[in-house]
């Protein structure tokens, strides 16, 4: 669809089609979506598109208001209910929908609002964490680094904060802090979550990374995959995953789970590809990301890590 046709469609054809369907069905576009589209990503994406294309002044003001709330990370447990109620009531009033007759619409639409602006807020939260630089003078940062070693190498004691042992789990040098520069604390938080919440899969991946022929730098690859996960989140490709799997306001924990899936699946893809050496990493990563993007185009995609791992 070229830009000229898209402009013509949104400016002229779409309003006419909406008016005709409203007259024949007695339902506005948002009602038709919430009643006729399967829940999860298909419904949420359709509602999001409808709201963003709306030319009604009150709806546009509502969208701007919710964008501001999400960008400032004010969509919290304390005021979430109030925000959702206000958004639903605005649409009910603007679209002249009887809340008693169409109470199910209010529930379905409110859930869509929660997902749409919860996702936008998650983007802001992840970006905030990414901008926090690892600081060895901050005790919490140091503790998380030591925890990463503990979960990945439970049977080997770390001899010192600066040690060649860090290279065993895939850092480049003797001090891991230099490897977090690109992704900041987000890179460390991702690695730690994978290692602690998915211990067996993480150990499985670590074992593969130490393969004499097809090995790779576990931590460095993990930080690169943090970058991939962040890009997929930021450009909206990951909406399919979050809209399908989240049952409430999306949290940073859910982003860590998404990252863990990517790491586990990348390891399988790497082994199946059988690259000649680590210099093939960029090409393999590019193909892997292309596959993930293709999968996420399917609105029914739902990623989960297989808890049963095979010995390869």
From TrEMBL:
Keyword terms: Membrane, Transmembrane, Transmembrane helix
Record carries keyword Plastid: no
Membrane-traversing stretches: 213-233
Transmembrane helix listed as a keyword: yes
ELMO domain sequence ranges: 140-296
Protein name, as recorded: ELMO domain-containing protein
């Amino acid at each position: 669809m070229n830009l000229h046709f898209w402009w013509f469609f949104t400016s002229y054809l779409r309003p006419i089609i909406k008016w005709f369907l409203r007259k024949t069905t007695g339902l506005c576009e948002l009602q038709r979506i919430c009643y006729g589209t399967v829940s999860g990503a298909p419904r949420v994406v359709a509602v999001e598109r409808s709201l963003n294309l709306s030319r009604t002044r009150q709806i546009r003001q509502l969208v701007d208001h919710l964008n501001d709330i999400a960008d400032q990370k004010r969509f919290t447990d304390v005021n979430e209910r109030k925000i959702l109620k206000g958004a639903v009531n605005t649409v009910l009033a603007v679209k002249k929908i009887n809340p008693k007759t169409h109470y199910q619409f209010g529930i379905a639409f409110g859930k869509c609002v929660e997902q749409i602006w919860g996702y936008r807020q998650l983007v802001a939260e992840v970006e905030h964490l990414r901008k926090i630089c690892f600081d060895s003078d901050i005790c919490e940062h140091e503790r998380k680094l030591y925890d990463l070693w503990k979960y990945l190498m439970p049977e080997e004691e770390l001899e010192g904060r600066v040690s060649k042992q860090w290279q065993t789990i895939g850092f480049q040098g003797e001090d891991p802090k230099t490897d977090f520069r690109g992704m900041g604390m987000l890179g460390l938080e991702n690695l730690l979550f994978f290692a602690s919440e998915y211990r067996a899969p993480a150990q499985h991946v670590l074992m593969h990374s130490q393969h004499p022929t097809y090995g790779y730098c576990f931590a460095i690859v993990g930080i690169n995959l943090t970058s991939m996960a962040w890009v997929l989140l930021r450009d909206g490709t990951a909406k399919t995953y979050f809209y399908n799997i989240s049952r409430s306001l999306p949290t940073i924990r859910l982003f860590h789970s998404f990252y863990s899936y990517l790491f586990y699946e990348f390891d399988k893809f790497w082994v199946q590809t059988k690259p000649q050496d680590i210099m093939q990493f960029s090409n393999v990563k590019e193909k892997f990301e292309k596959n993930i993007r293709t999968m996420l185009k399917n609105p029914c995609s739902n990623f989960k890590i297989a808890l049963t791992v095979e010995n390869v």
